[in-house]
Amino acid sequence: MIANYHTHTPRCNHAEGTDEEYVQQALKAGLKLLGFSDHAPYPFGNGYRSGIRMDVEELPEYCTSINALKAKYGQRIDIKIGLEAEYYPACFQAFKDLVRNSDVQYLILGQHWTFNEYDGIYNGSPTDDEQQLKQYCRQVLQGVDTGLFSYVAHPDLIRYVGDPKIYEKHIRILCRELAASGTPLEINLCGVRTRRHYPSADFWRIAAEENCVALFGVDAHRAQELTDKQALSAAQKFAREMQIPVLDRVDLRPAR
Ligand SMILES: [Zn+2]
Ligand SMILES: [Zn+2]
Questions:
Q1: Are 171 and 155 in contact, with CB atoms under 8 Å apart?
Q2: Model pTM greater than 0.90?
Q3: Where are the domains of the chain?
Q4: What residues sit around ligand 1, an ion, with C-beta below 5 angstroms?
Q5: Short-list 156, 203, 210, 215, CA closest to 178
Q6: How much distance in Å is there from the Cα of 154 to the middle of ligand 1?
Q7: What is the tens place of the pLDDT at every residue in 52-97?
């Protein structure tokens, strides 16, 4: 692994360590590129406060901190400023405006909730509701259609536990469209480390058949996770079994 675009910081309220510790561990892991992609601040506009992301007011300091690390370590490692964000239709314009006026360089799409979070359902909770599955797929594609997201993080986050035929029908369409758009899909190492329902073999078998391409994302919430060789080799074994091609770098799409 030479590039990791999926790295959190404590600003999201569920990660640990200083920004610099993440850079030091990335160097130790031999990465040539480290992208920070903390959970995006979202201007919800209705007073709703999300507990799992930085506040809008924290974005300038996030960028300043990473810019300082670029200045300090830039000769040894390419550091990028990104965000992991959902496509929330009611607030996406305000989010775009926020990003446009910042130093954020790239976005990855992590569709954690349907609709706008405050009126949606967490996609990682088990559901047998086909409407939930459909809405997840629709929203991922709407996000990708904005052209602003460089890849889809944990595309297999949706945890549909109903009829496998229904899962396959919707996921196949999703994967076909994602492949056609040239958007890479992430095999998420946080899911590997913490034995979540993703990476999902059911998802990736379909993704491979639909000619999707993958990359690994550490999804680090602790700096040491960047040097976790066990999780990486388990993910590599998984990718081989799924027969999915894995990129070691992606072309980042500009975030504005
Ligand atoms: Zn995520
Ligand atoms: Zn993440």
A1: no
A2: yes
A3: 3-242
A4: 110
A5: 210
A6: 7
A7: 999 999 999 999 999 999 999 999 999 999 999 999 999 999 999 9
Fold of the 3-242 domain: TIM Barrel (3.20.20)
CB 151 within 8 A of CB 109: yes
Contact 93, 128 (CB under 8 A): no
**CA 9 to ligand 1 center in whole angstroms:** 13
CA distance 249 to 173: 25
Separation between Cα atoms, residue 37 and residue 108, nearest integer Å: 7
User: Which parts of the chain fold into alpha helices (H)?
Assistant: 19-28, 59-73, 92-100, 130-145, 164-180, 189-193, 201-209, 229-242
Residue 253, amino acid? R
- Rounded to the nearest angstrom, the distance between the alpha carbon of 9 and the centre of ligand 2 is 10
77, two tokens: 């490692």
For Cα atoms 202, 204, 205, give the angle at the middle one, nearest 5 degrees.
70
Structure tokens at 101: 């006026």
Cβ distance 160 to 150 under 8 Å? no
Tokens read off for 199: 């990476």
